[in-house]
Design goal:
The chain has 349 residues and is α/β, with parallel strands linked by helices. The protein is 45% helix and 17% strand. The chain has 2 domains: 205 residues, 3-Layer(aba) Sandwich (D-Maltodextrin-Binding Protein, domain 2), CATH 3.40.190; 101 residues, 3-Layer(aba) Sandwich (D-Maltodextrin-Binding Protein, domain 2).
Length: 349
Amino acid sequence: MKRIIKTVAMLSAPVRTLIIVTSLLCGLSNLALGAEKIRIGHFPNITHLQPIIGQSLGIFDKRMGGAIDWKTFNAGPSEMEALIAGQLDIAFVGPNPAVNAFLRSKGKALKIIAGSASGGAALVVPKDCRIASVQDFRGKRIASPELGNTQDVALRHWLKNNGLTPGRDVSVIPIKNSDILMLFQQKKLDGAWVPEPWVSRLLLDGGGKIQLDERQLWNEGKFPTTVVVVRTEFYEKNRELVKRFLEAHLEVTEWIQKHPAEAQKRFNEQLARIVNKPMPSGLLAEAFARVTVTFDPLAGPLLISAGRARDLGYLPRNTDLTGGIKNLIDVTLLNEILKKKSLPPVKEK
């Protein structure tokens, strides 16, 4: 870096100006912005549409200068471990792992800077099962993607809210989505609470049916399935780069909303590259219909979900869900972009 600065300093003033201006205009000054390579995490899920379709469209690369290292994860807790360890800069993740990581780090590790998806999660059971109500799950085995992830919290809360204690009345088994499908096919599970596209895979490849769409449990059917978080240290050193990322995120979100058919096609092509198996077109359309892309973190439902995680013991019992996580959601940059586009701001609470 010192050699580069010294070399530039030796050039004539007009040449130095030309280099600096060209670098800024072309978006190639990531090094000057404090980051040589931006590491972004996400899942190969329909609830993570923006990073997957955004890669296909090249929008993130264009906005951020192309220096992106995309990393895929199975579920939120492991992804947040990577972020806390400094192995990720930005991540698409479920709200509960994000809140948990924030509290574990005493509010220092990350900030939620946008939303990404609402909906797209369901409880799937075998077609031939005789489960008519929640009480019929007594003594059964239900899987979730990972202990403490967003679907795991939703499942355990739903059981407890209906008088069933996870671990005593119902066996809740946190395992990878791919293993859930395998066990479901082998008739070793009585149900699974999973996000898309695994809901659809269980329907198609596992012979399942939807027992409960999680949207039924929320006011207006809106709840955050995926949010966007940034590592605090990266955010503080690279606010302009984070703003570019959010501009790209908003652009991809709007593109998906305007081009649903093309979005499905691009998602499926990209999914095939990641997991080596595209989804059948009919089922893909059904899965897309259960997910709403958004840039709003849906702060109100997010806090409700965090309260459920606290009640389940995933967060400290004394967690203050108003003042205690007041610095978790920071949509300052997002609202600056929305204002510039004459769009209404999103809420932090």
